[in-house]
Structure prediction request, 193 residues.
Amino acid sequence: MSEFTTHTLDTAPKASKPLLQNAKKEIGFIPNLMAVMAESPATLESYLSLANLFDKTSFTMTERQLILLSISRYRNCCYCLAAHGSIAKMQKIPTELVNAVYYKQSFNDEKLEALRSFTHAVLEAQGWVNQKYITAFYQSGYSQQHVLEVILAISFKTLSNYINHINDTPIDKEFLIGLPDNNASSSCCEADV
Prediction:
């Protein structure tokens, strides 16, 4: 059950209104997560700024979405899985890669698997990553810049994952396409998958 107000352009605090208007213009609707974040203009602005900065990283479009999906899968954030699954579909990222994240299966691509493994290692160790994971990440073709950009992604997703956990944010109908079988109660959202 939602804990916080899901704001509209009429109810949002004044400082959040232009941010929501921009989101509606760019996306075509105001996602529930942003409508909830609007309660705190600074939180909404931070989230949007981090999203913009993460899009500027050296990762490919596919790598970026797989990182965000992997973080959300690790934290079992169904809202973010649906949202980034939908974005991945719009960006024509292969369905088998997205499904591998949903169902915790290995990628057939060694470099992408190293990226996911390193992302999980950072999350699991809360930053105190064993050197063997860092070395394996570098041996897969990634660099120190990529290490820092994975941490940026985790910072970005921490905002949305934690807010969605506290709020149980309802998945927007526009994001249901991002779930397997377009089903909001899909097993991808269950903790034991």
About this structure: Residues 144-167 form the longest helix (24 residues). The two ends are 22 Å apart (CA to CA).
